[in-house]
Amino acid sequence: MTIDSTALPFTVPSGRIRPHGLAGTIRAEYEYQRETLCLIAARSIVHPEVAAATQSVFANVTTEGYPGDRYHSGSAGADVVERMAVDLACSVFGATYANVQSHAASTANLAVLTALLDPGDVVLSMDLASGGHLTHVSKPSVTSRFFRGVYYGVRADGRIDLAEVDRLAGEHRPKVIICGGSAYPRAIDFAGFRRVADRHGCVLVADISHTAGLVAAGLQPSPVPHAHVTTLCTHKQLYGPKGGLILSGPDAVSPPPGRTETLAKLLDRAVFPYFQGSPDFGAIAGKACVLDWVAKPEFARVMRRVRELADLLARRLERDFDLVSGGTDSHMVLVDLRPRGLTGRDAERALEAAGVLTNRNRVPGDTTPSRVAAGLRLGTNIAAFRGLTTADFDRCCTGIVDVLADPAAVPRVRAEIAGVMAAYPLPGGWS
Ligand SMILES: *Cc1c(COP(=O)(O)O)cnc(C)c1O
C-alpha cells in the first residue's frame, strides 16, 4: 500500500520554508487537531485550567533545591506550589513520598536507576517488542551504557509470565526489576512482582506513565503499595503538563536493598543535583492543578469513558484483526498486523491520510525494525476527553476498519472523520 503524502491534510514543508509564520502554524495545528481523531495512546490534551497554571508567573521562577532549602532568594511562592504538588501527588496515589521536579518520565527513570544502582549493575525489565520502554535499560537508550539490561517477554497469550521473571531474576541476579511499559494493554500484578523482587533481594520499580489515570481512578491496580518506587509522566493519561513524577509508598522511609540511606533521600538527591538544576515551576504549578482535578469525580468519569471506548475499539477491531493479548484492560489496543500482510508503518500512514492518528508499534516476537513495526497501537485518552458519543466513536471505528481493508476508502473516510469531529471542539477553546 502506498500513500501520497501530498494528500495529507497538514504537510510540513521539508526545507527552511516558513509559509505562515509561527502564528499561522499554530492556527493550522489547531485546525488539524480539531478535525482529526487522535488515537495515539501516548497523547492527551492539556486540561485548559492546567495550561493556564503552567503559563502562570511560576514559569518565571528559576531556583534550585527543595522547599525550605533553596539556592536563590525570593522562593517562598515556589516552596508553596511545590509542597502543594507533592501533597496532592501523595494523596491522589496513596504515596508517602513524591518528587515533582522531573522534566519527564525519562529523566525520572534515569534518576531512579541512578539512585538505586552502581554502574554495571543488572536490571531486569520487559523487552521493547513486548511493550517495555526505551528508558528501561533497552539497547538504544543511554541507560544501557551505564547498566546491564536483561529482559523478560510475554507468553503466547500476550501476558507477562511471572514464573519467567522469577527464573530470570534467579539466573541474572538483577538489583532492580522494572514493570510497566508503553505497549502492554493488560493490567499488571504488582503484588506478584513484589513477591518475586523480595525473593531475590531486588528493588521493584513500576513505571505507570501510560496508565496513571486509570490507576488514580481505581480502574487499574495501583503499584504504589507494592513497588519500592513508582514513576509516571503527567502528560499522557493525566491531561497535565509535560513532566514526570516519582512516588514511593511504605518503602520511602527505609534504605532499599544494597543501600544505607533512605529511599526518599536517595531519590531526592538523584533528581537534584544529579540530573537537574532548576525544575520548571510552571510545570509544577500545572502538576498541582491537574492532580487537584484528578482527585475529583469528573476525572473518574473521563477514565471510565476511556475504558468504555477502548473496549468498544477492541470489539470492533477483533472481528478483522489479531489483538495482542486478545483485548485490553486499559486505554490501549495493540493490533498485530502480520496475519494481514500489512506493516505498522503503512497502516499508520493510511489512517493518517484519513484523519485518524495512531502509531506503528512493535508487537511480541516482532522481527521488523521499529521504524517499520508489525503492529499498530491505538488509545482512547483524547476521544474520551473530547466527549465522543458511542455512536460517533463506532462510526470512526468503521472508518478505521475500511481504510485498513482498502486504501481507496481514504478520501471518503477522511470526510466522514472530519464530519464527526466537527461536533467536538477542542476543550477550553484552544487556539
Ligand atoms: C512515555 C513513557 C516514558 C517517557 O515519558 P517522557 O515523559 O515523555 O519522557 C517513560 N516510560 C513509559 C512506560 C512511557 O510510556
UniProtKB/TrEMBL annotation:
<dbReference type="InterPro" id="IPR015424">
    <property type="entry name" value="PyrdxlP-dep_Trfase"/>
</dbReference>
<dbReference type="InterPro" id="IPR039429">
    <property type="entry name" value="SHMT-like_dom"/>
</dbReference>
<protein>
    <submittedName>
        <fullName>Glycine hydroxymethyltransferase</fullName>
        <ecNumber>2.1.2.1</ecNumber>
    </submittedName>
</protein>
<keyword id="KW-0808">Transferase</keyword>
<dbReference type="InterPro" id="IPR001085">
    <property type="entry name" value="Ser_HO-MeTrfase"/>
</dbReference>
<keyword id="KW-0663">Pyridoxal phosphate</keyword>
<feature type="domain" description="Serine hydroxymethyltransferase-like">
    <location>
        <begin position="24"/>
        <end position="396"/>
    </location>
</feature>
<dbReference type="InterPro" id="IPR015421">
    <property type="entry name" value="PyrdxlP-dep_Trfase_major"/>
</dbReference>
<dbReference type="Pfam" id="PF00464">
    <property type="entry name" value="SHMT"/>
</dbReference>
<dbReference type="InterPro" id="IPR015422">
    <property type="entry name" value="PyrdxlP-dep_Trfase_small"/>
</dbReference>
<keyword id="KW-0045">Antibiotic biosynthesis</keyword>
<comment type="similarity">
    <text>Belongs to the SHMT family.</text>
</comment>
<dbReference type="InterPro" id="IPR049943">
    <property type="entry name" value="Ser_HO-MeTrfase-like"/>
</dbReference>
<dbReference type="GO" id="GO:0004372">
    <property type="term" value="F:glycine hydroxymethyltransferase activity"/>
</dbReference>
